[in-house]
Amino acid sequence: MRKLKCVRPGDSPIEFCDKITAIVDAVRVVQFSNPKGARAAKSQIVQAQKLLRHVKKEVGIKVRSINAACDQRQADITHNFTLGDAAALLLFGAGADRSYKAAKKQDVRYMKSNISSAYSEVKVAVDRALIQLDNMKLQIDNWIASRP
User: Does the model's pTM come out above 0.85?
Assistant: First the structure.
């Protein structure tokens, strides 16, 4: 699989997952013994949720840039006339030229689909982490409510 120009090593789905894990692990074990400590722990959870939402926005921006690059590449296939296109047209005719371009476009669509699916898994991981942190906040609220 060929890499698109816009995909940088720092923007890989694995690195986004590492960010998510680091954020969640930072607040996973919260300990408190009084309501003031519980409220402080809850504020840490809220900050972690903000960071996770920011990561999700970064993923969305990355997916949009990948989609734009793939769309541009498909447009280039359609509108640019390369040496390979000329050879196919001269040697095999217009039908072969259309088949050649269709195959190239299909490759771009598969590449776009594979890359986008990895990033959509990252978005699902962010959503799961947000739900997990919401449950932690709810438990803290219940603990605070049960205190006299």
Answer: no
